[in-house]
Specification:
Length: about 280
Amino acid sequence: MKTSKMKFGINYVDTKSPLHGLNGITKFALLMAWITVVLTTFDLRIIVVMILLGLTLLKTTGVAFQVYKPLLLGTLSVLTTNAIFMFAVAPQQGSEVLGTTTELMTLPGNYTLTQETLYYLCTVTLKYFSMFPIALVFVFTTHPTEFASSLNRVGVPYKIAYAVSLTLRYLPEVKNDFVNIMHAQQARGVDFSKNAPLMDRFRGVTKILIPLIFSSLDRADEISNAMTLRGFGRYNSRTWYNQRVLTSKDWGVLAILALGVTLALIKRNADTVMMWYPFG
């Protein structure tokens, strides 16, 4: 049986891109501002622009497409499945939101696919997807320690900042554990390929997740003991190895983000309808 390989990463990659030069706080503010704008709009025009801008920023990071291609495909698969479930649960949701009904196809079980529901599902799916590129931009360009020190500088307690740093730092380790456990299960005859029945693959994933959870708990316990032995948390403040001040470029980006969020909130309050619909 052929052993599958996983060649993707969700960790910091130093490509010396312009985005890497920004302060961690600036990139975190970018992520939060992006999510805020996305959550306040159902305007497909804005969502498409944000997807294109996000993909452009992701390309600017200099990280090879093959690194995040599996994540991209996995995200699209999950969002497509989510859209199907949304239609199964509420097949007339789009018509109820937009107030019109244009039938496209009658399906079994009294399900009717309308133009409004199709448009609604596409908008919601793209709305969720628009947050994917910027999340990768943040992870790929933000060093965990530098980001933690930046959080501490703006008033976040260093214990919380360090917890965030550990989370980002050990994402690659969790991925490596997942791959190692998967290979061990494949060596025992568990088939994760497309040739295996769907339920067999689900059971196979369970055989990975349970050891992964226990190994992660063991690692957390080891880290906790090591930090306790080194006196972590004894003092009210601490110094940082990686520490970067906000530059004029950071302040400029923060100003643009503040303006963008303000305009998004103003537009949301001014809109008389929930969703922009070009066919109404």
